[in-house]
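Q: Give me the 3D complex with manganese (II) ion.
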Amino acid sequence: MDEQWIIDKIKAAGLKLTRPRMLVIEVLRQNKNGFISADEIFNLINHKEKVCDLTSIYRTLTSLEEIQLVEKSDFFGEASQYRLLSHQDHYHHHHHYFKCNECGKIEVLCGDCNVVQYENDLKKRGFSNLSHRLELSGLCPSCNK
Amino acid sequence: MDEQWIIDKIKAAGLKLTRPRMLVIEVLRQNKNGFISADEIFNLINHKEKVCDLTSIYRTLTSLEEIQLVEKSDFFGEASQYRLLSHQDHYHHHHHYFKCNECGKIEVLCGDCNVVQYENDLKKRGFSNLSHRLELSGLCPSCNK
DNA sequence: TCTTTATTGCAATCTGTTTGCATTTACCTT
DNA sequence: AAGGTAAATGCAAACAGATTGCAATAAAGA
Ligand SMILES: [Mn+2]
Ligand SMILES: [Mn+2]
Ligand SMILES: [Zn+2]
Ligand SMILES: [Zn+2]
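A: Here is the predicted complex, encoded as structure tokens.
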């Protein structure tokens, strides 16, 4: 059911394996590679009957972010969005996002990026410790038809 | 005092030249090339005595954004930030931002960008109408010492 | 099973922002 | 220079997303 490495990571961090946490993770897993808000998670979890409070979802997301199981994005205005980091994301994670202006879906774009060149220019100008985030928008392939 | 083209733009849009609007613009002008929040604008305007309501500042910023005199950014978490677009910004504006992790200052980086290459790759994959925003962070030259 | 400590639910609180509405103001007409 | 009109304002109330305090609960180790 839940991938083992997730369980391991939570335990290794000294966090308990609680019901709200399992529920949140399950939703995030189903939503792999996409972003989802706390409220959307809440609604998915509680659509039949209320089994978990919104507060706990926020707290869970915060904890999971701290142990780098979850990535939070304030990028797209509105409510913060979250996604489960994949096992490999966790090692060399890099943030390129695409938001479709039509369907609103946020997609994580994998692959190399050339912003590094840009960063090198900035280093020459006295900036340091650089990191970056890139947000693209437009029409996604399915809305493009 | 106020640059003429700003006045012209406001009139051309059919907006009235009101006191709150003039006050906000004056603050934005002084803050050229930097971002500032509604609340900071409020405090600057009213530091001696209250001359303008926060609501009007929000409404002013929204109006000015609509006529593209102001750019709003929800980029950096926290409160939205605004800046006055320069005359030339208005024509080929491009958004590259740098936020210093130390002093918190947000800087607008001018200059060309190579993300266009990235966009070209995406076009081949079926995306269209692409635009992008790039956020960099790290230490600015002054905090780097 | 017992004990300890983290985690939970709930209500209250917070911050940033927006809205409704009565009053005022800019500015166009006379 | 006054007057009329629609736009813009101030104030209070509402809003949304998120956070906090606290007493009750439940997970994990003994
Ligand atoms: Mn990159
Ligand atoms: Mn660019
Ligand atoms: Zn789409
Ligand atoms: Zn700095």
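A quick observation: The first strand of chain B starts at residue 36 and ends at 37.
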